[in-house]
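Reviewer 2 asked us to include a model.

Predict the structure of this chain.
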Amino acid sequence: MFSIAYLLRDSGVMIATIFCFVLFSSFVGYLTFRYTFEGFTVFKTPSSSFYNMYILLTTANFPDVMLPAYNANRLSCLFFIFYLIFGLYFIQNLLLATIFNNYKQRIESKIVDKKESRAELIESYFDSFDIEKKGYLDLKEAK
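Predicted model (structure tokens):
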């Protein structure tokens, strides 16, 4: 659960960017297709257009969102193609890169912390045998 919380905290800017992109695109789609068949089926309200544009971005059931507009007017398909290209191949790849970079930084910081604690443990163990605090062990202390 902590790793998911760290993931959401570190990737919050990219998640907000994706949310704003989908919100902006759904608003543009709502205004563009408002008086068409696509507007009556997919873009009825701003909230339903946001939901359908989110479905389109996830490619879970995207033909139901895109194909009615394509059948009515082939140029309206450019809106959806631009949305998918920009969303899938640019924004979501940036999100993946952000998640990977943050994960890598967390792992590297854990490695550094582990090395530091290991060095401190070895030093304290050495100091327990170095009775006179000379910085080295003589033969008697080493035995």
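Residues 2-103 form a domain with the Helix Hairpins fold (CATH 1.10.287). Residues 43 and 63 are 15 Å apart (CA to CA). We have added this to the supplementary material.
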